[in-house]
Amino acid sequence: MTSNVSEAGETTVTGGAAEASEADRALGYEQARDELIEVVRRLEAGGTTLEESLALWERGEELAKVCRRWLDGARARLDAALAEDEETDASGDGRG
User: Which residues partner with 3 through β-bridges?
Assistant: First the structure.
């Protein structure tokens, strides 16, 4: 079971994990981060039913995974660029 928090702040629960994964893959880092902030805000504010709180928690976990994938990808790109720069410096071609 997955849930989605709309811009209006409503929580909807869907049954397809693949459906959520495809939608989450389309999210950019900033979108996922902003939605995660909103989920946390709603959880901290309270006033939701147990079912709504669980759905928000699950959505937050999915959004955190999306953010982590983006950050891991950025780290890999940075590491690759740094390694390439080091190889270039070691070869002595004068760039850098």
Answer: 13
